[in-house]
Amino acid sequence: MTEELERADNDSPWKEILEAYFPQAIHFFFPETAILLDWERPHEFLDKEFQQIARDAEQGRRYADKLVKVWQIQGEEIWLLIHVEIQAKPEENFAERMFSYNLRIFDKFGKPAISLAILCDADPNWRPNQYNYNYPNTRLNFEFGTVKLLDYQKRWADLEASDNPFATVVMAHLKTQQTSKKPGDRKNWKFSLIRRLYEQGLQERDIRNLYRFIDWVMILPKALEAEFWQEFKQFEQEQTMSYVTTGERIGYERGQQEQAQSLVLRQVKKRVGDLPSEAQERIQSLSLEQLEALGEALLDFTGLEDLLSWLEANPAE
């Protein structure tokens, strides 16, 4: 399916869904950590702090990383570093990088961090969970928490029975993997998973958030996408809810976002020349409102430095 290549930023839906349902993510994937924490106190995403420790992150790979300040039940502050390894192929230096990030957090901020990883690849044998070295007088064994989404294939009934939003996330991910060369099956599963949101009786906000994730990752060829929309529109018309156009609104919003991205990238390249990959990725992560602001601001740019300064002053929302 060549259209898979058109939406390479599969970190975006993961970042969105983690921000929308962070406590549910920890309860779903890492219950032993979840019970240590006081969820009555608000958690805080430390995006600026993470950018400081990930300053030399590897080029050419995409990650969904979140550094989050939470509170233990005993009242002590602790940070969580949750990493979603989205790449299809295992990464050789993954455990070393998990250790490196943990060490940088402690070195720069003096904070211990609980490091957690969600592995989305399709290799059942790749299960990194520690980084170590051992010499006669010095040894280190750094362990971190991991979950393998592939393992949930054997727990499909549990996923169907769960009302945690990340059950839906895992189901969408697994069926996307399993139908990579079966677009017809993917269309059926996409429809089934979205219908399930309505059958669960979720609030409109939750349907919108989960619909956005499913629609983003379960990409269909254009002809099948059109079929899907017809079936889904008919299904929504049969519902008695007041938000029956949820899907169409989200599809329209996504279309606006992609068009704005494409237009701004063309304008920026014409204005300042070829872009470093990091700058292009940062532009692709901007909201629609930020893209519109950048489109206006670039009229005053004289070179790449102006763009980089603007991006530094306007981090992705």
Task: Reconstruct the topology from this structure.
Elements: H1 11-20, H2 22-29, H3 31-34, E1 44-45, H4 47-53, E2 63-71, E3 77-85, H5 94-109, E4 113-119, E5 130-134, E6 139-143, E7 145-148, H6 156-161, H7 165-178, H8 183-199, H9 204-217, H10 222-237, H11 246-272, H12 277-284, H13 288-297, H14 304-313
Parallel strand pairs: 3-4, 4-7
Antiparallel strand pairs: 1-2, 2-3, 5-6
Structural class, by secondary structure, is alpha/beta
Order of helices and strands: HHHEHEEHEEEEHHHHHHHHH
Sheet with the most strands?
Answer: 5 strands, mixed
Task: Please indicate the percent range of residues in DSSP E strands (runs of 2 or more).
Answer: 5-15%
Shape: globular
Q: With helices defined by DSSP (H or I, 4 residues minimum), what is the helix count?
A: 14
Name the assembly state: single chain
Cα end-to-end separation = 31 Å
Question: Can you walk me through this structure?
Answer:
With 317 residues, the protein is of the alpha/beta class. 53% of the residues lie in helices and 13% in strands. The protein is built from 14 helices and seven strands. The chain has a five-stranded mixed sheet with strand order 1-2-3-4-7. The chain has a two-stranded antiparallel sheet with strand order 5-6. Helix 1 packs antiparallel against helix 9 (204-217), helix 8 (183-199) packs parallel to helix 10 (222-237) and helix 11 (246-272) runs parallel beside helix 13. The longest helix is centred in the last third of the chain and has 27 residues, at 246-272. The protein starts with 10 loop residues before the first helix and ends with a helix. Residues 1-8 have low confidence and may be disordered.
